[in-house]
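Notes continue from the previous slide.

Worked example: a multi-chain complex. Inputs as given:
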Amino acid sequence: AQTVTQSQPEMSVQEAETVTLSCTYDTSESDYYLFWYKQPPSRQMILVIRQEAYKQQNATENRFSVNFQKAAKSFSLKISDSQLGDAAMYFCAYRSNAGNMLTFGGGTRLMVKP
Amino acid sequence: DAGITQSPRHKVTETGTPVTLRCHQTENHRYMYWYRQDPGHGLRLIHYSYGVKDTDKGEVSDGYSVSRSKTEDFLLTLESATSSQTSVYFCAISFTGQPNSPLHFGNGTRLTVT
């Protein structure tokens, strides 16, 4: 079974600075998909970014980008120019190309200091 | 907006009572999921459905049952609620069911079992 680990329960960043959230996963598969979700205090789960394992190029969505290291099974999220609205729980998730299940990490709570 | 409505939004119930949570979608997507969220565990899959009357178990299905008699409704039932089932429950849908298709989540139901 695949596992997803987020080793940083909490992180903080100064407004306008850059922060990187870590995620590692364990799988024996070569074809899969990775996602980052944001959960603000409203409890809504919001897709931030996704990465296909077969793509070498790192995904980017505005201020959000990933550093995907397939051999190391690492999928970190970089948030540039942090804003107060970025404060939330962030979840890394894995989905096999062959399965229906999205497996989540335990989450990282990001605090943004003004 | 993926058109997902969960009800109720909050519920408090006593140990041993049956509880049913409802997920309703407005867009006739085939794939629907129930997750529970607990601190330190992220979100874990309880059950999912890939069509009317077609359901399967996730990683934490013990103590839960589901039903899907119509495309738009996916019900999660706790036959006899226990305190360990105190959690936030999320319903999700997948637009295509393909592995690269992200899940879209409802706003969650906070269930407290006393």
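Summary box: DSSP finds no helices and twelve strands in chain A. The mean pLDDT of chain A is 94.
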